[in-house]
Amino acid sequence: MPYKVINPPVDEPLTLGEAKEHLREPASLSAHDTQIEALIKAAREYAEEYTRRAFITQTIEMRLDDFADEIELPKPPLQSVISIEYFDADGVLQTLATSVYSVDTTSTPGRVTLNDGESWPGTKDTTNAVIITFTAGYGVNGTDVPETIRQALRLYLSKHFDLDRNDGEYLDKALHCMLKLKKVWSL
């Protein structure tokens, strides 16, 4: 089930100001801003990969070889399904009517299921014949992200910003303990 982010998050879970405050960097000092912004992005990417979640709203495209009875969508929490497309038996790209399926945004991970009395259309016998485009994440703002995750990102910043610290192992364990609370274990 290959997937890719086609519209990445516009913002990060932590602002530069929040990160600088946590790192005890003066707000007026801009010498490390580029480094801190890069660390914020790296922290989010690391934590998203570790937890198998999307934190800030992003658009994801997933491809399948064929339809399944129930399709679990990666990178919860699922916000919405934008479209389900497929290559029909003749190799023509079609868009599946929304009346054929239901979207479950409550479950983790989110899923797509076939409605009663409906059937999935036939697809071309090829790889990646089904394309599902969806949005995932807690919301568009950093404050929409659970505080446990935001705190774990702060620990990541602490560990990687000041490399002279001697508590890196402790920070690493604390970071992973916090992220495990939000990790998606299925899929």
Give the helices and strands, then pairings.
Blueprint: E1 3-7, H1 16-22, H2 33-51, E2 58-64, E3 70-72, E4 78-87, E5 93-95, E6 101-104, E7 111-114, E8 130-136, H3 147-161, H4 168-180
Antiparallel strand pairs: 1-2, 2-8, 3-7, 4-5, 4-8, 6-7
Helix pairs in contact: 2-3, 3-4
Q: What general form does the structure show?
A: elongated
- How many helices? The count is 4
Counting DSSP E segments of at least 2 residues, the number of strands comes to 8
- Give the low-pLDDT segments: none
How many individual domains? 2
CA-based gyration radius: 20 Å
User: Could you spell the SSE succession in H and E letters?
Assistant: EHHEEEEEEEHH
Physical arrangement of strands within the biggest beta sheet: 1-2-8-4-5
Q: Calculate the mean pLDDT score and round it.
A: 92
Proportion of residues in extended strands: 15-25%
Q: Percent range for helical residues?
A: 25-40%
**Derived structural class:** alpha+beta
Give the termini distance in whole angstroms.
10 Å
Describe the largest sheet.
5 strands, antiparallel
Short account of what is shown:
The chain is of the alpha+beta class and 187 residues long.
What does this structure look like?
- The chain is of the alpha+beta class.
- It has helices spanning 16-22, 33-51, 147-161, 168-180, and strands at 3-7, 58-64, 70-72, 78-87, 93-95, 101-104, 111-114, 130-136.
- It is 29% helix and 23% strand.
- The strands form 2 sheets. The protein has a 5-stranded antiparallel beta sheet with strand order 1-2-8-4-5, with no helix packed on it.
- β4 and β5 (93-95) form a beta hairpin.
- α2 (33-51) packs across α3 and α3 runs antiparallel to α4 (168-180).
